[in-house]
Write a structure and sequence with these properties.
Helices cover about 75% and strands about 0% of the residues. The protein has about 200 residues and is an all-alpha fold. It comes from Acinetobacter brisouii CIP 110357.
């Protein structure tokens, strides 16, 4: 009789745990964190090829390459992904949207008005790495290389900005005053060099 009760209790515990997980926001507690990463890698390759074509196409011939970029972006939206990778898709979608809009504005002979794609790309690869680090392709995509470069530039700028703020504070100046003083010093030095070279 006791074995019968333990068996019934065990049968109830597993479904209870699964229901608790589902109600707690986890849609599938048994889902792999890297589900869909292969498809993301394929999207990256296709985007790299399509962006190369669009970037080397004359304005008048851009509609077809831009349509290809839009198709790739739509395909990104249809990939089945783990919950972990869904924010990565959102970041990549935003990045693609910005890039496509730049081409559309160029086609319309307008100045691009929306930037900030580097942050989206850095976020995409950060999330992707967190969810599927062991699934990265052996040869990084151009997108991955672009993200790495953007991250280095952002860190360098942050370091430079911090140095300027520190120097301005040491001089008792605002950052704008310090930058104006530095620009004036550089202009004076350049004028002195030009005068010396002319003699």
């Amino acid at each position: 009789m006791q074995d019968f009760k333990m068996t019934n209790i065990r049968k109830l515990i597993a479904p209870l745990l699964i229901c608790t997980s589902l109600l707690g926001g986890c849609k599938n507690p048994f889902e792999s964190k890297d589900k869909g990463v292969e498809q993301l890698n394929e999207i990256e390759k296709r985007w790299d090829d399509a962006i190369d074509v669009a970037s080397s196409t004359a304005r008048i011939a851009l509609p077809t390459p831009v349509a290809k970029l839009q198709d790739i972006k739509r395909d990104l939206g249809s990939i089945e992904l783990s919950d972990c990778l869904k924010p990565a898709r959102e970041a990549l979608n935003d990045y693609m949207d910005i890039k496509i809009n730049v081409f559309l504005q160029f086609m319309a002979d307008q100045e691009p008005t929306k930037f900030g794609s580097d942050d989206k790309l850095i976020k995409y690869f950060s999330i992707k790495k967190e969810c599927a680090a062991d699934q990265e392709p052996k040869k990084p995509s151009k997108l991955a290389t672009e993200a790495t470069a953007a991250e280095v530039i952002a860190k360098t700028k942050a370091t430079s900005d911090a140095a300027v703020m520190k120097a301005a504070k040491e001089k008792g100046m605002s950052v704008a005053e310090f930058e104006a003083m530095a620009a004036a010093s550089e202009a004076t030095a350049a004028a002195s060099e030009a005068m010396a070279a002319s003699h």
